[in-house]
């Protein structure tokens, strides 16, 4: 396994692993295109109304491509309705159909579904079994060619082609230098992915219509497999842990795995496969992806708010409340701001809790406020572009700072 050199500088597009560019709807993936955020619905696709609603929710949160389950005929027949619902409401969202087991049948029996989708997701481990596997895989690829659609060939650890895995295990057993079972399973993932992509090309699907992925749930395996994929091919790469988990565990695991690969220039589109809590919004996975990309300096989605963690000097919750209000305010405003104030997503805001690091951090931000710590005089200097511009006092500091922030955006980012 490779380790990151701490002396590495921030990535720029030229450092990325060179891959073919694939168009999914109107969204470019790979090549020199910006990294793309994806998500997936968890509604019953046959319910066109609820699925449309969640797609819009994910798209509004920043998901540039949305995947939906197509698992039966009623779901397949609902796909054109969902697409029409989106168009009627003014949303041009690229839709990916996720097929398992019966995708060959659904794509041929419901041609309107095949035509409406912008991409097909094929898992070679469960397109069929025995002699039917290759034939049914071929049918799905031929549908993609017929309707001029790209495909994602997504191999999963939990549904790996067992015939291939057994073959590699047997070959390894007779080798003079046998590898570990873990190494063989990783190799099986890579071989299955590249073999399937190669077969798709043999059938006539060009490389610029193919995206590949190998989803596993362990960070070490994911990194090792994608390093090999990047070494052995130039296919567009979709990154993500499968079954990342819930809460902080899922977020940390996803950020760690994706961060390591992205920092080495590997990856063209990402998803955070988080398990939402009961009643929680599905959009958290979109936010996590955006924050991973923005933290690495690969894309900017909304202004970053820096806030100190708090300590014994900040026993008051005032600065925490202000940081939360400012973060929420920015999220609520960013969609409209982007239309009028180009570049506002690159703005840095600091909300600091006391005099120790507050003034310095605020000076380094585009706009920042250093709040008084516990027992300190209730004076809050505001710094704009490195210089002290205002001093706020009293009980309306939050509201006054929000007004100053809005004025700053208008002044700095307004179109000429």
From TrEMBL:
<dbReference type="Pfam" id="PF26540">
    <property type="entry name" value="GcpE_C"/>
</dbReference>
<feature type="binding site">
    <location>
        <position position="354"/>
    </location>
    <ligand>
        <name>[4Fe-4S] cluster</name>
    </ligand>
</feature>
<dbReference type="GO" id="GO:0005506">
    <property type="term" value="F:iron ion binding"/>
</dbReference>
<feature type="domain" description="IspG TIM-barrel">
    <location>
        <begin position="19"/>
        <end position="289"/>
    </location>
</feature>
<keyword id="KW-0479">Metal-binding</keyword>
<keyword id="KW-0411">Iron-sulfur</keyword>
<protein>
    <recommendedName>
        <fullName>4-hydroxy-3-methylbut-2-en-1-yl diphosphate synthase (flavodoxin)</fullName>
        <ecNumber>1.17.7.3</ecNumber>
    </recommendedName>
</protein>
<feature type="binding site">
    <location>
        <position position="308"/>
    </location>
    <ligand>
        <name>[4Fe-4S] cluster</name>
    </ligand>
</feature>
<dbReference type="GO" id="GO:0051539">
    <property type="term" value="F:4 iron, 4 sulfur cluster binding"/>
</dbReference>
<keyword id="KW-0004">4Fe-4S</keyword>
<dbReference type="Pfam" id="PF04551">
    <property type="entry name" value="GcpE"/>
</dbReference>
<dbReference type="InterPro" id="IPR058579">
    <property type="entry name" value="IspG_C"/>
</dbReference>
<dbReference type="InterPro" id="IPR011005">
    <property type="entry name" value="Dihydropteroate_synth-like_sf"/>
</dbReference>
<dbReference type="GO" id="GO:0046429">
    <property type="term" value="F:4-hydroxy-3-methylbut-2-en-1-yl diphosphate synthase activity (ferredoxin)"/>
</dbReference>
<feature type="binding site">
    <location>
        <position position="361"/>
    </location>
    <ligand>
        <name>[4Fe-4S] cluster</name>
    </ligand>
</feature>
<feature type="domain" description="IspG C-terminal">
    <location>
        <begin position="306"/>
        <end position="405"/>
    </location>
</feature>
<dbReference type="GO" id="GO:0016114">
    <property type="term" value="P:terpenoid biosynthetic process"/>
</dbReference>
<dbReference type="InterPro" id="IPR045854">
    <property type="entry name" value="NO2/SO3_Rdtase_4Fe4S_sf"/>
</dbReference>
<dbReference type="GO" id="GO:0019288">
    <property type="term" value="P:isopentenyl diphosphate biosynthetic process, methylerythritol 4-phosphate pathway"/>
</dbReference>
<comment type="similarity">
    <text>Belongs to the IspG family.</text>
</comment>
<comment type="function">
    <text>Converts 2C-methyl-D-erythritol 2,4-cyclodiphosphate (ME-2,4cPP) into 1-hydroxy-2-methyl-2-(E)-butenyl 4-diphosphate.</text>
</comment>
<dbReference type="InterPro" id="IPR016425">
    <property type="entry name" value="IspG_bac"/>
</dbReference>
<dbReference type="InterPro" id="IPR058578">
    <property type="entry name" value="IspG_TIM"/>
</dbReference>
<comment type="pathway">
    <text>Isoprenoid biosynthesis; isopentenyl diphosphate biosynthesis via DXP pathway; isopentenyl diphosphate from 1-deoxy-D-xylulose 5-phosphate: step 5/6.</text>
</comment>
<keyword id="KW-0414">Isoprene biosynthesis</keyword>
<dbReference type="GO" id="GO:0141197">
    <property type="term" value="F:4-hydroxy-3-methylbut-2-enyl-diphosphate synthase activity (flavodoxin)"/>
</dbReference>
<dbReference type="InterPro" id="IPR004588">
    <property type="entry name" value="IspG_bac-typ"/>
</dbReference>
<keyword id="KW-0560">Oxidoreductase</keyword>
<keyword id="KW-0408">Iron</keyword>
<feature type="binding site">
    <location>
        <position position="311"/>
    </location>
    <ligand>
        <name>[4Fe-4S] cluster</name>
    </ligand>
</feature>
């Amino acid at each position: 396994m490779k380790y990151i050199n701490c002396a590495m500088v921030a990535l720029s597009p030229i450092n990325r692993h060179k891959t073919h560019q694939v168009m999914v709807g109107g969204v470019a993936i790979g090549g020199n295109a910006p990294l793309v955020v994806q998500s997936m619905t968890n509604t019953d696709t046959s319910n066109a109304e609820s699925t449309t609603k969640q797609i819009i929710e994910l798209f509004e949160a920043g998901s540039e491509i949305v995947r939906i389950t197509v698992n039966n005929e009623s779901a397949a027949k609902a796909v054109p309705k969902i697409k029409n619902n989106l168009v009627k409401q003014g949303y041009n969202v690229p839709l990916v159909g996720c097929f398992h087991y019966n995708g060959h049948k659904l794509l041929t029996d419901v041609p309107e579904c095949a035509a409406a989708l912008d991409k097909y997701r094929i898992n070679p481990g469960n397109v069929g079994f025995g002699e039917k596997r290759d034939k049914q895989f071929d049918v799905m690829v031929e549908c993609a060619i017929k309707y001029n659609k790209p495909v994602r060939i997504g191999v999963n650890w939990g549904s790996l082609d067992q015939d291939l895995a057994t073959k590699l295990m047997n070959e390894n057993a007779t080798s003079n230098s046998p590898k570990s079972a873990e190494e063989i399973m990783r190799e099986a993932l890579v071989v299955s992915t590249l073999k399937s992509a190669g077969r798709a090309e043999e059938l006539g699907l060009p490389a610029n219509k193919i995206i590949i992925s190998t989803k596993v749930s362990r960070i070490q395996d994911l990194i090792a497999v994608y390093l090999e994929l990047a070494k052995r091919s130039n296919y567009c790469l979709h990154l993500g842990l499968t079954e990342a988990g819930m809460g902080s565990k899922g977020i940390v695991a996803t950020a760690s795995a994706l961060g390591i690969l992205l920092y080495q220039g590997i990856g063209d589109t990402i998803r955070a496969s988080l398990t939402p809590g009961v009643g929680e919004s599905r959009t958290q996975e979109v936010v996590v992806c955006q924050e991973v990309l923005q933290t690495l300096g690969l894309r900017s989605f909304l202004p970053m708010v820096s806030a100190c963690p708090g300590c014994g000097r900040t026993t008051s919750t005032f600065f925490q409340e202000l940081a939360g209000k400012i973060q929420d305010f920015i999220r609520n405003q960013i969609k409209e701001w982007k239309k009028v104030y180009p570049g506002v997503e690159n703005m840095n805001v600091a909300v600091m809790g006391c005099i120790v690091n507050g003034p310095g951090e605020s000076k380094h931000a585009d706009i920042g406020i250093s709040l008084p710590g516990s027992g300190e005089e209730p004076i809050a200097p505001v710094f704009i572009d490195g210089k002290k511009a205002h001093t706020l006092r009293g009980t309306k500091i939050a509201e006054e700072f929000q007004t100053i922030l809005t004025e700053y955006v208008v002044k700095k980012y307004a179109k000429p």
